[in-house]
Fold each of these.
Amino acid sequence: MNATVLVLNGPNLNRLGTREPEIYGSTTFSELTEICERHAQVHNLKADVRQTNSEAELIGWLHEAADAKLPVVLNPAAFTHYSYAVRDACSMLTAPLIEVHISNPSAREEFRHNSVISGVALGTIAGFGMDSYRMAIEQIARLNG
Ligand code: DQA
């Protein structure tokens, strides 16, 4: 059976496709889900893709990942820049955590330049649109194999 990777997405990412398409592209969240599921399958993984607008729910999923020792691909969205609670939950993970962003936050507004998550992630992939997720899944597969 394929090992599971959790692909967790924070606030407003359910709006992909219509949300600032000049920044985030035209792919919808359900298309992104399919991309991740298919890409994971090719790499003998099973992607469990979720999105929430709630910090509490995201933290609950991270606790689940910590308990089950699951690898995580995380787009924390705006929580990236200020949520010490999400960071603390990430710190409990024992399997690899890869932070992803669709855009390149470092090339955008000043408040996006700092990630409170990066310091507890294995690595960060940003600026490659939906390919950021594909690359992260590939890295999880490589680390898993
Ligand atoms: C984002 C970048 C964040 O700054 C922003 O708040 C998001 C999306 C990205 O994927 O590019 O919601 O994480």
Amino acid sequence: MLIFRTPGELQQWALAQRARNVKVGLVPTMGYLHEGHLSLIAEARKRADAVVVSIFVNPVQFGPNEDFEKYPRDEARDLARCEEAGATAVFLPTPAVMYAPDASVFVVEERLGQGLCGARRPGHFRGVCTVVAKLFNLALPDVAVFGQKDYQQAAIIKRMVRDLNFPIEIVVAPIVRETDGLAKSSRNVYLSAEERQNALGLSRALALAAEEVAKGPCESQALRQKMVRLLEQSALRVDYVELVDAEQLTPVAEAVPGTVALIAAFCGKTRLIDNRIL
Ligand code: AMP
């Protein structure tokens, strides 16, 4: 498995692949890899000849009071997992090699990022779009795989690819969960035993929404309130609960099959997100 630590090394390799008609798949991550990430690598392997995994905790997408400094990192374990998963190359840059001290060009999506996590984490998707655009220009992938776990992020990346004409296919892979339903996340490592139990409130509230909608269309406000109540009973502090249109991410008055339910909630100090297409 190849290991690149600078943008130049990755881009040179990518140009050589392109010259040889090797189809490249990219899986962008922030590391501390779990089975969710590994499922994206497996998906990329099905669709490409060579797979690049990037591992970069991107400072530009973290707010001043967020967990950039203490975000979990384990390079040795991540490299072993990538190798086992059959990655061709891993890109492990530092912030210093990714951003010039006077960097002044950023990518901003202006519609889909207005609500949900975009409203709660100002500047977050500007950081995400900028780093993903840079990774696209470095790895020159034919296909890039993202997780539905970050539903809004995947929608924004698809929009960026459409609106800026990146010649890249975007694939969104399903959410990988623990057996009890909790969505896998690098941040789950922050949870105490009690919080880990409370965190089940997210997937349970989404299951409740799916059950309700399976019975017939639901008035969104009433359904949201039921979900909020379930979250609060699990000692979670709700950041948002929304029922939105799957493409435009705008709130719907009535939840129907195909509506997306999204939750962000604090479990102790840890902010968790989850979603489900109803
Ligand atoms: P992260 O390292 O958290 O930035 O995530 C990197 C990629 O993995 C993103 O496309 C995420 O949506 C995806 N991902 C994270 N958790 C999961 C999961 N439980 N199931 C599927 N994909 C995931």
